[in-house]
């Protein structure tokens, strides 16, 4: 199959943006923002205080002074990620579109952001901490809790009872995370089309009719369209169940 090697190193433009300011103006917000940018190319769970300080060009103690513990760093990055999810959700809620379309659009926006930051997606798949609730500094907002609250409000406004809303949340979380990981790691069948077709061609199509029709279809599969169809189908089935008559 195709080479699955993952990109390494910090994004140069981001590094320049933060480090050229100098250690005298290093801030917690700047460090957290920089750390989130690193998750474009590496998993959040692999990010240590030492790794972060080296990327910033400052002493590790300087990062610890502004951020605190590693848990505070991880939660800070996840909190910023949830803030971005909320920023994407706001125009959807304000658009006046139907609740049905709003839920589908919110799921698509979540997939887009998880695809943009694959290191967050890989963290969510590997870790339990900070996947929902955060530990923000005193006086700051827990955007994880805020996002979950906003999504469940949207589900309730659409007429879903708590059990169906929980099922929908679970499905959206699973599909967005798995699909984003699939795309980021180039696991989609279309990325390995030549290999798959070549392997399938080794088998007689008459004796192996499933392979003969299935593999070419898999190679042509549009992962994003499949995601959109699955989300829409599930949302519509739940809402139709809730509709009277």
Description:
The chain has 245 residues and is mainly α. The chain is built from 12 helices and no strands. It has helices spanning 12-19, 28-38, 49-56, 60-67, 70-94, 99-116, 118-126, 143-157, 162-184, 193-200, 209-220, 223-242. Helix 6 (99-116) packs antiparallel against helix 12, helix 7 packs across helix 9 and helix 8 (143-157) packs across helix 9 (162-184). It is flat, with a radius of gyration of 21 Å. The termini are far apart.
Give short descriptive properties of this protein.
DNA binding, 245 residues, Tet_transcr_reg_TetR-rel_C_sf, Tetracycline Repressor, domain 2, 67% helix, HTH_TetR, flat, mainly alpha
Order of helices and strands: HHHHHHHHHHHH
Strand content: under 5%
CATH topology of the domain at 79-242: Tetracycline Repressor, domain 2
By secondary-structure content and strand pairing, the structural class works out as mainly alpha
At CATH level 2, the architecture of the domain at 79-242 is Orthogonal Bundle
Q: CATH homologous superfamily name of the domain at 79-242?
A: Tetracycline Repressor, domain 2
The counted number of beta strands is: 0
Q: Roughly how many Å is the radius of gyration?
A: 21 Å
Q: Write down the overall geometry.
A: flat
CATH domain class name of the domain at 79-242? Mainly Alpha
Structure annotation, total helices: 12
Compute the separation of the termini in Å. Answer: 51 Å
Mean pLDDT: 89
Helix content: 55-70%
